[in-house]
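Problem 12. The chain below contains 239 residues. Write out its predicted structure in token notation.
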Amino acid sequence: MSFARNRDLRLPAPEEAPPGRPALAYEIPERHTVLGTALQGPYPEDFEVADFALGCFWGAERRFWQLPAGVWTTLTGFQGGYTPHPVDDEIRTGRTGHAETVRVVFDPAEITYERLLRLFWESHDPTQGFRQGNDVGTHVRSILFTHSPAQRAAAEQTRTRYQQALSAAGYGEITTEILAAEDHPFYPARAFHQQYLDKNPAGYCGIGGTGVELSTPFETNRGSSCPTGIAPAPDAKDT
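Solution.
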């Protein structure tokens, strides 16, 4: 990934995107290396799907699978762009429009979507636009892809509350988009990116929170992954 200046970046127009392909260009592993569950399904009945883009998906995925209960599987991928079934080299150019995304399949009887939203907001700086710490590019922007009206309502409500908390702490405006998942297909990343920090425990983790908490009446336990704050690294990782 190049270190282009954040202010010079922009999302591509649809006509600028590579044409892509009709199907995935690589194989996806069948099972999650930590949870042992199916990455692409079938998923248990009554479970829900939630998609979160919050910067480098290596560290983001680990935050969700480390939650103490309720998360059935996690899967890294790309969402929010134009190119069907993109590959790494295309995404790295910024021309596909995709963001690195973590798909979370969870049991709503054990964990609420609002609990996942709290982890999302507190695990990154949602005011940075096309940047997250050391990582710069449109592919590391902040997005919530919602799968139901209830998810959208919760996403909007928590964004408002977190903006109030961030403003009180001296931060700027949240740049997080809230988009309908049905309008933005999710394309799984190649095997190398799935549960990357389980296979490479000392690997690069480029996400970290602001230290500002989301005031919420929901559960307060948080998974532990990267330390609070942006993890320092001499170089940003490539997609």
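Discussion. The chain has five helices and eight strands. Students who got a different answer should revisit the alignment rule from Section 12.3.
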